[in-house]
Amino acid sequence: MMTPMAKRISHDLTYDAPIEDVRAMLLDEEFRRTVATEQRALRSTVDIQGTKVHLETVQPAAGIPSFAKKFVGDEIVIDQRETWTGDQADVHVTIPGKPGDMKGTATLKSVDGGTVETVDLEIKVSIPLVGGKIEGLIGDMLVKALKAENRAGRAWLARAEG
């Protein structure tokens, strides 16, 4: 039996704000709803209890290659959980009912008066033959989602300053 391979994604999100402001933003339900809108989610729910974040977003499967669409259907439900301890979160993302997940961390670091959030995730899809292709596809989608989150965060923090 073959051990499933995994794809690793590391992406930096930069903010022109102190680390405390970025941490507060990431633990703000309204900000997370704004991110879902920026990511063009069909629906989303946000539940933040202290330093525990639970997000569920539903994304359209439009534009996904046919080999992957038969596994996910017309909509993709994404269940994301984060547990923050200081400037780092453990992140776990699943697509309920589908074989695979993403696990890793989000880390905040002060850099030149601003903040860099580094998201480092390992993507595993346990489907014979096409799992690697789907991991690559998910990785590409994840980077697009993080770029949308970064845009929303920069705008959010700029409004907070103004």
From TrEMBL:
It comes from the Bacteria. InterPro entries: DUF2505, START-like_dom_sf. Gene3D superfamilies: 3.30.530.20. This is DUF2505 domain-containing protein. The lineage of its organism: Bacteria, Bacillati, Actinomycetota, Actinomycetes, Propionibacteriales.
